[in-house]
Write a structure and sequence with these properties.
The structure holds three protein chains of three kinds. Chain A is of the alpha/beta class. Chain A contains 23 helices and 20 strands. Chain A folds into five domains: about 110 residues, Glutaredoxin; about 210 residues, NADH-ubiquinone oxidoreductase 51kDa subunit (Rossmann fold, 3-Layer(aba) Sandwich); about 80 residues, Ubiquitin-like (UB roll); about 90 residues, NADH-ubiquinone oxidoreductase 51kDa subunit, iron-sulphur binding domain (de novo design (two linked rop proteins)), CATH 1.20.1440; about 55 residues, Alpha-Beta Plaits, CATH 3.30.70.20. The longest helix of chain A is centred in the last third of the chain and has 19 residues. Chain B is of the alpha+beta class. The chains are: A alpha/beta, B alpha+beta, C alpha/beta. The structure holds flavin mononucleotide, iron/sulfur cluster (6 copies) and FE2/S2 (inorganic) cluster (FES) (3 copies). One iron/sulfur cluster binds next to helix 3 of chain C.
Chain lengths: ~600, ~120, ~575
């Protein structure tokens, strides 16, 4: 095997691919070939580093230098300076938001320092298309250990003892689920991986699949061994072409190496894995809908019980786990349940991956130990709120989670604390909102999503969420009526109690949690016909404050409808009939003479 | 590649594959070899020096060594310059390192922990 | 069977281990409202009407799909449960075209009934309604999406009972509709017009194509000689529409009612059922004795015929070429009867009263005009007749007994049993036996082919020849039999297939029973038993003994399978596609 003195890792996750990492990688290879360095410097593709916003991202080892927003034009300079002369190209380094300091290594940046990477251990480290790189980093060692040193029951016990809970939303103890399936009678059983990831803005599972597909395969095999299954299915959304491709490559490589198929590692254990592509309906992520979809039926939930552990795929006992849940398994088997259980809190063990977005400086993917506080994630890892704005709330749990206000920022992130706060862990969405976000509007946004994605099977969800949405619409349009809040609460309560599946049962959460913490905003809309955040267009209007207006006319120039008029150097006025509330004049006025209220 | 038929074969492949990713892991705990590679160094044959180091490391199957390059440090007459930095030990700088010297540095200093005093930079 | 004990509303109930909470409550005489639940057909927990509280559970659970477990504690009547049911029902009503007085299901509607039962006083959550779609392109079935509550009972009926599956949920969320793929019309897809979806529907979202106006018009036209035929299964079902019990026999009330409506002659499809046996029995013997295509499969159920044309075209040659009794009647009426009575056939208007929606399609098939005119002008369902009678102020139960008219009103018991599954087979066997052996049949009751078992098989010894017969009703059952035939796994000589469960007594044009009535009693069995009761009460019980049929052959047709018979009484079939051709 060749020894290289330097590795250039180019991120080829979905984000960086979209921003052009393919070209960057080609340019590196060409430049390195041109300079005759191809025996010393290796160019490697990796999966997502979690900072997609800044892509294309490049890491150069052994220094671990982190270059972001790299363009093909930058490559000759990086090769000349860094790879030939050993001088780091400062201008392309990642810039810390708070300090403006340019940091050399990925591991130095705040975004990374507080993270603990278990599920993402290989993401951005190995080339996901080369099975040897996975093996080199202890890949398939856990499988070997399970198959030769542990009984199936010992595997289950280890997972139970680790305290691992499902990362797909519900937080059900993974070991218990495996135990149910192991106990269920049946000669044929299945292992299913839920890679549907329908939450808007979420890409935790995608990153694992793109950056470390073998860890999921290995974990599914371990699960198969534990419950006595010999077939696995990965249900992955078709909108993830890179993840699908990497999975296909990984499955083929594993088969070629005898790590999938018959008599794995000479132990007599048989297991194979097949891909099923999902059409991208959010509800297909619900486990019974997902199973229906794999079977070729319309992706719709059905009542449970019977649970899939007893009657799953084609009526056979089936375990279904989330991608991230599986990604933890090999580490648990290798390093032991005690190691895993030492991370996190009493009731929530290990780490959780979050996709942090919204009004926050560092958006991206972070893996943190359970128990980290929201404040740490938002301020220390996320770098706080941009443009000096005030934090208002953070929404966790995807479209069916809730909004958590500033007063609860020091709450540790755990399954149960989040639920108590009216939200949930969900699959790991985290959207930060600042003072400009109207909480009624936010609730409406999420409900619009769930309403669209409802499968339409049961009336509470199909019609109930529609009615809630209609009420929110009238509130944000200034047509709210006395009693609307109570109507919303009552309807929400009933939907939560009676809907058939998790989608309907959680759809009211964004509304309930915003009413709980921001009732005054609802009341302002309804009683005063006022949107305190200035976000609901129907409720705001723009005016020129005569005292402050210097008559510069800049607003006149930007107004798309010619709504502003006035003599030069005289206070201007806005014709309310013409104004379409585009906010341009407000942004433009250098004297702050335009108000919206 | 062929089918992996046993745990032993898997371990063998792991051993062979280690170097694939070694460079990206736990670099704080590894020995660093820094070769001066500015224009002057390259003119003085630094590339051959570096290739020799890499070759020797490979031949002897040495792990946990990082080879990097650096720019001109203003001591052009001593080029090629090679620094060896072992974890928790002070930096040792060798001067006028040709291919042959380079191979010996690998064997004596890096593997056997014996600093070759004669080649170390004079105190000027 | 292992039993478990649970507590419902404080009351201990012991039920078999695989029961649902709904069944357990039923046993304890505790009423839980249901809407999407249709016993044995649609048990999917969709409508959330039947929610109950289970001690220790967070959310409410749907009793209709919730398995019982030992020691379970269920509350069916807490404030939370009642409120939830009310909210759900109000939501359904808020998205419903609530025009009860003009609705075909007014006073026979499960939604209406529930709303009354749960004491709905107002709809707290009014709002936008889903897009109304009205599909009346099919000659048999009309879909009115504005009334659909998406309970999916029709979907299960079409998929599970009929093995057809042309309707299913389309789109998502508030826009979900139950419709054929791509929102096509039922007329464009491989729907067999059986109407089982209508029978399953709790509301007025599915109904027959109403043809009563055309009949009223004909009756009012002095130029027209309007005659009517009533199918065998009507006489055990029409009474239900007038408050008689399930399966009440109203054979003699029918002529009285129809005469009062103004029909010029009141005839009986039973007459042509006997005629069918003469032709089909002869066809069977012909094929059996001369190496014709076997098994022979009966052809009197038009839903089944269309099913075969779409789904089993390779078996079309196995179908009997005999027209159905309805069509034989029409062809004979506009030729033989017209001639005999000296009436211009173009002035004859033939109405049939059928248990069946598929008969509407059948009457319109282009090949059904061997008299030179459309043989049957209008096929009405039992329900349409009942509406006409009500509109005319005729109360069936208060009418005197009357007889059908001559000559097309004369029939035997063999014809009557056409209305129940196995009946055609039994009627054919009675005649075939006596024709072949020349001996009188000692026991004319072939009970092996009776009853509601989905598939029935028997081997009949006809003078040393062993004849293997099979009987299937409900197309999902038919599929099983046909697959066996296709795969060479069965050696049948003669197969009876009826499209609808129970045969025509369970036809898609029959009085609609709500889910509760269907759970309480098996209407297929009750109405079927009544059919056999009719048979027993007849003086003549074998088709070849029907004097009017004998006269028809003597005066007009010659003999069974004669050239004239072939022209008037036999037909051919067309392979039809599974998907619309574009
Ligand atoms: C509407 C809805 C959508 C869901 N989407 C996903 C999803 O995209 N990915 C996922 O892993 N789990 C999803 N779930 C949760 C799954 O039903 C299931 O609980 C999970 O896959 C179990 O795996 P875990 O125990 O490893 O979390 C969803 C649940 C609901 C109700
Ligand atoms: S809750 Fe919503 S998504 Fe779930 S079954 Fe009901 S309609 Fe479908
Ligand atoms: S930009 Fe401001 S100051 Fe200038 S004219 Fe407009 S309102 Fe007045
Ligand atoms: S908000 Fe837009 S449309 Fe209204 S006055 Fe300002 S610039 Fe013109
Ligand atoms: S379906 Fe029922 S509730 Fe709806 S309009 Fe008809 S009768 Fe009324
Ligand atoms: S008429 Fe029969 S085949 Fe057609 S949709 Fe209804 S149930 Fe299905
Ligand atoms: S048409 Fe009738 S049976 Fe079918 S889903 Fe709608 S309401 Fe239910
Ligand atoms: S895709 Fe490159 S950092 Fe996420
Ligand atoms: S959910 Fe039970 S009756 Fe509909
Ligand atoms: S038409 Fe359905 S069985 Fe007669």
């Amino acid at each position: 095997m060749e020894i290289y003195r330097a590795h250039v890792l180019v991120c080829k996750g979905t984000g960086c691919t979209a921003s052009g990492s393919e070209n960057v990688m080609d340019a590196f290879q060409k430049e390195i070939d041109k300079r005759g360095l191809s025996k010393e410097v290796r160019v490697v593709q990796t999966g997502c580093l979690g900072l997609c916003e800044l892509g294309p991202n490049v890491l150069i080892y052994p220094e671990g230098s982190y270059y972001c927003r790299v363009k093909a034009e930058d490559i000759p300079e990086i090769v000349e300076e860094h790879l030939v002369k050993g001088r780091i190209v400062e201008r392309l380094l990642y810039k810390e938001h708070l300090t403006e300091e340019r940091l050399r290594a990925l591991t130095d940046i705040d975004f990374y320092k507080k993270q603990k990477r278990i599920a993402l251990r290989n993401c951005g480290l190995i080339n996901p298309e080369v099975i040897e790189e996975y093996i080199a980093n202890d890949g398939y060692k856990a499988l070997a250990k399970a198959l030769t040193q542990m009984t199936p029951q010992e595997v289950i016990d280890e997972v139970k003892k680790s305290g691992l809970r499902g990362r797909g939303g519900g937080g059900f103890p993974t070991g218990n689920k495996w135990q149910f399936a192991a106990n269920a009678k049946g000669d044929i059983k299945y292992v299913v991986c839920n890679a549907d990831e329908g939450d808007p803005g979420a890409f935790m599972d995608r990153s694992v699949l793109e950056g470390d597909p073998h860890s999921v395969l290995e974990a599914m095999e371990i699960a198969g061994y534990a419950i006595g299954a010999s077939e696995g299915y990965i249900y992955v959304r078709a909108e993830y072409p890179i993840a699908v491709k990497r999975l296909e490559i990984a499955i083929n490589q594993a088969r070629e190496h005898g790590l999938l198929g018959k008599n794995i590692l000479g132990t007599g254990f048989n297991f194979d894995i097949f891909l099923r592509l999902g059409s991208g309906a959010f509800v297909c992520g619900e486990e019974t809908a997902l199973l229906a979809s794999i079977e070729g039926r319309r992706g719709e939930p059905r009542p449970r019980p019977p649970f899939p552990a007893n009657e799953g795929l084609w009526g056979k006992p089936t375990i279904i786990n989330n991608v991230e849940t599986y990604a933890n398994i090999p580490e648990i088997i290798l390093k032991g349940a005690d190691w895993f259980a030492s991370i996190g809190t009493e009731k929530s063990k290990g780490t959780k991956v979050f996709a942090v977005g919204g009004k926050i400086n560092n958006t991206g993917l972070v893996e943190i130990p359970m128990g980290t506080t929201l404040r740490e994630v938002i301020y220390e890892i996320g770098g706080g709120i941009p443009n000096g704005k005030k934090f208002k709330a953070v929404q966790t749990g995807g479209p069916s989670g809730g909004c958590i206000p500033a007063a609860l920022l020091d709450m540790p992130i755990e399954y149960d604390t989040l639920v108590q706060a009216g939200s949930m862990m969900g699959s790991g969405g985290m959207i930060v909102m600042d003072e400009d976000n109207c909480m009624v509007d936010i609730a409406k946004f999420f409900l619009t999503f769930t309403q669209d994605e409802s499968c339409g099977k049961c009336p509470p969800c199909r019609i109930g969420t529609k009615r809630m949405l209609e009420i929110l619409e009238r509130i944000t349009n200034g047509e709210g009526k006395e009693g609307d809040i109570e109507l919303l609460e009552n309807l929400a309560k009933s939907i939560k109690a009676s809907a058939l599946c998790g989608l309907g049962q959680t759809a009211p959460n964004p509304v309930l949690s915003t009413i709980r913490y921001f009732r005054d905003e609802y009341e302002a809309h309804i009683k005063e016909k006022r949107c305190p955040a200035g976000a609901c267009k129907a409720l705001i209007h723009y005016e020129v404050v005569a005292d402050k207006c210097r008559g510069c006319g800049l607003c006149v120039k930007v107004c798309p409808t010619g709504a502003i008029s006035g003599e030069r150097k005289q206070p201007h006025v806005i014709d309310q009939d013409k104004c379409i509330k585009c906010n341009s004049c407000f942004d433009r006025c250098p004297f702050g003479a335009i108000t919206k209220a | 590649m062929a089918v992996i038929k046993s745990i032993e074969e898997l371990e063998k492949i792991r051993e062979q594959a280690k170097d694939l990713i070694n460079l990206r892991k736990d670099n704080e705990t590894k020995t660093r070899v820094v070769v001066g590679m500015a224009t002057c160094g390259i003119a003085a044959g630094a590339r051959q020096t570096m290739l020799a180091i890499l070759d020797e490391l490979k031949k002897r199957n040495v792990e946990n060594v990082i080879v990097t390059e650096t720019g001109c440090i203003g001591l052009c007459k001593f080029e090629p310059l090679v620094d060896v930095i072992k974890p928790d030990q002070p930096k040792v700088t060798y001067v006028n390192v040709n291919e042959e010297k380079a191979r010996q540095i690998v064997v004596k200093h890096i593997i056997n922990n014996q600093i070759i005093d004669d080649w170390v930079i004079p105190n000027i | 069977m292992e039993m478990v004990t649970l507590t419902i509303d404080g009351q201990k109930v012991e039920v078999p281990k695989d029961s649902t909470v709904l069944e357990a409550a039923h046993k304890a005489n505790i009423r839980i409202p249901t809407l999407c639940f249709l016993k044995g057909i649609n048990e999917i927990g969709a409508c959330r009407m039947c929610v109950v509280e289970v001690k220790g559970g967070k959310a409410l659970q749907a009793a209709c799909v919730l398995p019982v477990s030992e020691g379970m504690e269920v509350i069916t009547n807490s404030p939370a449960v009642r409120e939830s049911r009310k909210v759900t029902l109000e939501l359904l009503l808020s998205d419903h075209n609530l025009e009860c007085p003009t609705c075909v299901r007014n006073l026979n509607c499960e939604l209406q009934k529930l709303s009354e039962e749960l004491g709905i006083k107002s709809i707290r959550y009014p709002g936008e309604k889903h897009a109304p779609r009205y599909d009346d392109f099919s000659p048999s079935i009309v879909r009115d999406a504005s009334k659909c509550i998406l309970c999916r009972r029709c979907v299960s009926a079409c998929h599970k009972v009929q093995g057809v599956g042309v309707i299913s949920p389309n789109h998502r969320g508030f826009n979900t509709v139950i419709a054929p793929v791509f929102d096509l019309s039922l007329a464009e897809v491989a729907c067999v017009n059986c109407g089982q979806c209508i029978m399953a529907c709790p509301v007025g979202a599915l109904k027959e194509k109403d043809d009563t106006d055309r009949v009223w018009q004909a009756l009012a036209d002095p130029e027209k000689h309007v005659i009517v035929q009533t199918a065998p299964a009507i006489r055990v079902s029409l009474g239900e529409e007038f408050g008689e019990g399930m399966g009440a026999i109203v054979t003699k009330k029918l002529p009285a009612a129809l005469r009062r409506l103004g029909f010029d002659k009141v005839f009986d499809t039973d007459f042509s059922a006997d005629l069918t046996i003469m032709e089909e029995g002869s066809e069977f013997l012909e094929r059996l004795q001369h190496g014709g295509k076997l098994p022979l499969i009966t052809s009197c159920s038009p839903g089944w015929i269309k099913f075969c044309e779409h789904y089993y075209p390779e078996l079309l040659d196995n179908l009997s070429t005999c027209k159905s009794p309805q069509q034989m009647f029409g062809a004979v009426a506009k030729t033989y009867y017209a001639e005999k009575m000296g009436i211009d056939p173009s002035k004859i208007f033939v109405v049939s009263i059928m248990p069946c929606t598929a008969k509407k399609f059948e009457a319109q098939r282009p090949e059904m005009n061997s008299s030179g005119y459309q043989d049957v002008d209008v096929a009405l369902t039992t329900r349409e007749l009942s509406r006409m009678l009500k509109e005319a102020g005729i109360d069936l139960s208060k009418l005197p007994d009357e007889e059908f008219d001559d000559p097309l009103g004369i029939s035997t018991g063999a014809a009557a049993i056409f209305g129940a599954t196995g009946g055609v087979m039994e009627a054919a066997l009675r005649t075939v036996y006596e024709v072949v052996t020349g001996k009188e049949l000692q026991n004319i009751d072939f009970t092996e082919v009776r009853g509601v078992e989905g598939i029935k098989e028997a081997t009949i010894d006809i003078d040393g020849t062993k004849v293997n017969v099979a009987v299937a009703h409900g197309l999902a059952n038919a599929r099983k039999v046909l697959d066996r035939v296709k795969n060479g796994e069965a050696n049948y000589h003669f197969i009876e297939i009826m499209c609808c469960p129970g045969g025509c007594v369970g036809g898609g044009g029959q009085p609609i029973l709500n889910a509760e009535e269907r759970w309480a009693k098996d209407y297929r069995e009750v109405r079927g038993n009544a059919i056999y009761e009719v048979d027993r009460s007849m003086k003549l019980r074998k088709s070849h003994e029907n004097p009017a049929v004998q006269t028809l052959y003597k005066e007009f047709l010659g003999k069974p399978l004669s050239e004239k018979s072939h022209h008037l009484l036999h037909t051919h079939y067309t392979k039809r596609p599974l998907y619309p051709e574009v």
